[in-house]
Amino acid sequence: MRRRLSADDDANGLGNNTAATAGNADATERVERSGGMMVMKEGGSRGVARAHERKTSKEGGREHGSGEKAAMWAQTLDSSAGKSGLDGGANGREIPETIAERHSSQRGKMRGPWACSLLTLATTACSIILLATIVRSYLTLQMDPKGCAMSYMRPAFAPFSDFDTEHTRFASKYSLYLYREGGVDEDTRVKGIPVLFIPGNAGSYKQVRPIAAEAANYFQNELRVDTAAVGSGKRPLDIFTVDFNEELSAFHGQTLLDQAEYLNEAIAFILALYHNPSRSLREPGLPDPKSVIILGHSMGGVVARTMLHMPNYQQHTINTIITLSAPHARAPISFDAEMVATYNDINTFWRESYSTANPRHNPLADVTLVSVAGGGLDTMIPSEYSSLTSLVPDTHGFTVFTSAIPRVWTGMDHLAIMWCDQFRKALVRAIFDVADVRRPSQTLAQSQRIEALRKRLLTGMESVVEKATLEHEPVTFLTLEHSSTSIMSHGERLTLRSIGASGNTKAHLMPIPAQPFAEGGKFTLLTDHALNASASNGTLTTLLCSVFPPSSGSTGLTFAIGMQINSYHSAGSTRLACKNAAADISFLPASTNESINAFDDARPFSYLQYDLEDLHEYQFVAIVEQATEPVQGWLLAEFSSGKDSAIKISKGHHQLLLNGLRRKLPATRPMMTELKIPEVHSTLFAYKLHVDRQVCGSAEDELFAPLLRQYIQEPYESKYFVNTKGGNINVHGISPYMPPPLSGKGASEGLSLQLWTDPTCDSTVKVTLSVDIVGSAGKLVMRYRTVFASFPLLVVAIVLRKQFKVYDATGVFISFSHSMDQCIRTSLPAIVTALTFLAVALSKATQGPWAQKWLGRSTTETVDFTVNDFMLGTSDPFFWFLVPLFGLISIGICIAANYTVLTLTHLFALTHGLLRSWTTTRSPPEDARSKPASSFAPSTTYQRMITTGILLLMILTIVPYQFAYVILCLVQITTSTKALRAALDDRADASANFYNYTHYDVAVHWLTPFSTPHNLLSVLPYILLVEMLSTGAMVPRLTTRARHLTNLSLFAFALYAAVYGVSHAYRLHHLANALCAWLFAVHLSQHSGSSGGGGDPVALVRRLAGQYLPRRARSSSRPGAGSGGGGGGGEHGGRDVKKRP
Fold it and tell me: Is the pLDDT of residue 797 over 70?
């Protein structure tokens, strides 16, 4: 049956011509292999001519496989060469010579490593331009300003040498220290609340210095002299720190587990110190500590969560964990199988614990976890990886960005979060807020802890932050005299351009609108002065008041009176029961015409915001001016309806990308206007915001410059733009490869923009939001870093597949460049297109139950947390264009890397040739041509076995396999250099084949950590293959069905690299190792096949089984062996085979 030529055959140009000619039944050629070369013997020309004759005379006749391809190849070449043969007048005698010349020329082009077509150049140029744009965007565009102030300290570390091998098996590996601040607290005995710091990947125990120094100074200078604070259980912090010798805990799962085990034993040792009178200065009467507060940086935060799942963890010894830039949601890299498995185990443990219906069965019921992220300046890990939304409910933890923390208001990089002065102050105060030395746990109860941490670290405008004032009983009994009271009309805005202008204490009563309240209605107050928590002194006080009917005989002692205006019994007075609203203040960065950044050193604004539903028990909001003389400052307060203050804009990605967003705010707008854009939630987009405002229409100057806050919920990220005219908008919301929320909710609520403007200026404001396409390109780097490793492997696998396919068919191992050029024209566009459709299909199908069943690995959980583990890692089909984008960039990377390696190997080969000419006598040209592998030193099988055995023994005992891998790479580069030198010297086909084969092997593999540095299996196949190549042995052709295994293996490798290469990159190493093992088996099978068909690993396995398996087993496995026609079979078959009845 006639077989059509495949696209691969046509793309090669050569097709399967050599193999076809060799396999022609009528040709009398003989093929011999000598060092991998195919030598045409006597009768080859006649075979070609006869094939041409038969093809032209029997058009349409049927021939088998290789014979037909030989005829087609001969016909093609003859048609192009026939004209020259007839012109020569040699009756066709010159046709075979012409064919041979063209054949040799074409084979030389296919083997040429520098082959480069116009299409390849154009593809490379496009790829480099795109990659340069992405890198430039990442390094220069959409950058947040840096505002951290430097911190100073006088550190001293006291080691615990007695924490030795009697306490832990890691005593010789790790160390424990106690921090003390010089000049403040130099006594090394424990006395306060234990805190343990855990450094991160390659981190130092000394990184705790800024935070520990601030804790010591803060207690010494403020809390120690505050009797209320001391009475509420505030004591100094005993901050311990651990030296992990800067281990790479992010790359090795077993290292993470070892650290967690050591830390649990360290906690037991720390708690025991407080029971030892000689090592403790603890006040008598205080309970001994039973738990330790954990502070973890980077991977140290992951280690902290791992501790609670370790077998040696003692229950309730940890109840508060604060992590800084810790990648909780997923492993930062997936190159280590044990790291990925550890993450899965730990995250599953936390999710299942908080999903337990009965809190009594929750081992983490008393644990509070807070994750602090640095934002866009953190280039070590994507800050969205710090999110806890998929791990912890909001009742037990939250994630906050440093740019949202009051009085910090700046992002920070991965290391700056440990020393930033503004942040360390906020962090230390948060730790003291939850500390209570009067309790054995050394902290407040869990509900109080989470409330205190929210109050300190969140803006106060989040929905989860409870209004403290509303929960308290009235503490101020206010009597107002009508002559000193101003009652505003309903809906009237209160505007104070100076404080204390009347010279007397004055109250302004703002009546709360009557029910039913308008949907979304709010009360807002903004001032550049601090609102006083005490009514006895200060400048401004804000009270929530309700009318208190005076009872007979009542006096001012009925309540703890904090304010008195004139006399209680004056005629025309009104009595109100009030609560001070100072506890609910939110601080905003000052925004004036001179402001530049939110973190500028300026007194912040005070802001109050209440939903009207929360004020249903009150009748008035009282703003009291307590200044008795004019003070420079201002205040604005008003009630607003939801329809005026909140604007929802429903525009999708496509609309924002094409048209952007434009909104004009009227001159009669409220002081605070909020724009909600639900579709803006992806971390892959960056935006440009422009705020255009008219000149203030009032004769008086505006009270403050426009202030903008961008924020999202879960995680709690806020950024402030002072004196704003616009800025860069980017969010850390929904991100690729992130697990869904623990609550099972859908998409994020999206981006919200809060804009505070002076409403007394009769001017409009125009807000414009557009997609920053170039700025968005840089966001791909942090989210898809591993893609730039996995997708190039996809390209390399497809190119190798082409090389082996052509080699098995023709005996020509084409160069990587030529194979790449052919793949760009045929297979790569088809594969990239198919993957694009697959990405779209998967993004849509992940919402369905069948996809979660077949693609996800979660079986018992209600929410499938693995649904985003494959392809682009997103369920949004909008990002389909990323597949061809990454494919194009990866092709360019491979082409550029190929020519870089070619340049280096040619330089090495030139150097090798010069050195050889200087040190040895040059052999005659004819001798060099007769020995194509003369660059390779001859060695016996026995010597090679000894060398390989010594290397394997060293890996098992002394040398880490990573070091051995580097050595093997150097050996492979040397082999490739020698092969190139041989190809340049003798110009033989075999040498060119071998160089192209060794050239690919230089860049196929990569280094991957394993559970032990002496893991032999992680590098054994590579050792065997490199050792085989170092002898100059060319891989034999496969002409049997075994060749399909190479084809399918490389295609499967490419498919896996595209689909799961990011989330499970470590498996790519396993697949590459398996490919090396297969090629080594092909090498071993070189002598098992026929002389014309090449080696067959399957036949090799059969031969080895026949040689080493017992005869009884062999005979019983072949029922007819004993009665076969061979004498050997008759000799053993009748005696060894045991027949069944």
Answer: yes
The one-letter amino acid at 516: P
Q: Which two tokens stand for residue 479?
A: 């009597």
Dihedral sign for Cα 651, 657, 662, 663, please.
positive
How far is Cα 747 from Cα 735, in angstroms, rounded to an integer?
11
Torsion of CA 991, 993, 995, 999, to 10 degrees: 180
Phi, psi of 674 (to 5 degrees): -120, 125
pLDDT attached to residue 1095 = 56
Q: Which two tokens stand for residue 66?
A: 């290789």
Per-residue confidence at 101, pLDDT binned at 50, 70, 90? Answer: low
List pLDDT tens digits, range 733-751: 889 999 989 887 765 689 9
342 near 255, Cβ under 8 Å?
Answer: no
Residue owning tokens 């206007």: 673
23 and 66 Cβ atoms separated by less than 8 Å: yes
> Does residue 395 have a pLDDT over 70?
yes
Report the alpha-carbon distance of residue 279 to residue 646 in Å, rounded.
60
Task: Count Cβ atoms below 10 Å from residue 414 Cβ, excluding itself.
Answer: 19
* Gap between the Cα atoms of 308 and 299, Å rounded: 15
Tell the residue number behind the tokens 């030193």, with chain if given: 937
Residue 890 has pLDDT above 80, yes or no: yes
Q: How confident is the model at residue 924 (pLDDT cuts 50, 70, 90)?
A: low
Least confident stretch, 189-193, 540-544, 755-759, 969-973:
969-973
Place of tokens 């190929």: 898
Q: What are phi and psi of 203, to 5 degrees?
A: -90, 160
| DSSP assigned state of 271 | H
* CA–CA distance, 1105 with 1108 (Å, rounded to integer): 5
Say if CB 612 and CB 517 are below 8 A apart. yes
| pLDDT number for residue 1009 | 44
Locate 966 and state its tokens. Answer: 């580097």
Helix (H, G, I), strand (E, B) or coil at 520: coil
Q: What average pLDDT does the structure give for the chain?
A: 80
pLDDT in tens, 484-519: 677 888 888 999 988 887 777 888 899 998 876 677
Q: What whole-number distance in Å separates Cα of residue 327 and Cα of residue 224?
A: 36
Secondary structure in 3-state letters for 1061-1103:
CCCCCHHHHHHHHHHHHHHHHHHHHHHCCCCCCCCCHHHHHHH
Copy the structure tokens of residue 72.
């087609």
Instruction: Residue 899: name the closest of 821, 835, 806, 967 by CA.
Output: 821
- What residues have CB less than 8 Å from 52, skipping those under 6 apart? 71, 74, 75, 78, 95
CA angle 327, 319, 439 (to 5 degrees): 155
Cβ atoms of 1011 and 1057 closer than 8 Å: no
**Could you read off the pLDDT of 892-913 as tens digits, one per residue?**
999 998 888 888 888 988 887 7
Burial 977-991 (b: 16+ CB within 10 A, else e): bbbbbbbebbebbbb
Q: Which two tokens stand for residue 942?
A: 């026995």
Print burial letters for 35-74: b (CB count within 10 Å at least 16), e (below 16): bbebebeeebbebbbbbbebbeeeeeeebeebbbbbbbbb
pLDDT band, residue 676 (cuts 50/70/90): very high
Complete DSSP assignment for 552-618: TT--GGGS------S-TT-TTEEEEEEEEGGGG-EEE----TT---TTSSSPPEEEEEEEGGGGTT-
Could you confirm whether 447 is annotated as catalytic?
Answer: no
Got the DSSP string for 726-747? EEEEE--SB-TTPPPPTT---S
Structure tokens at 649: 């804009």
Q: Which one of 298, 386, 935, 1115 is the catalytic residue?
A: 298
Nearest to 333 by CA among 857, 876, 883, 1069: 1069
> Does residue 1045 sit in helix, strand or coil?
helix
Neighbours of 969 (CB within 10 A): 18
Closest CA to 333 of 777, 734, 785, 778: 785
Give the residue-averaged pLDDT of 642-649. 89
Cα distance between residue 349 and residue 307, in whole Å = 12
Strand partners, 198: 296
Residue 99: strand pairing partners = none
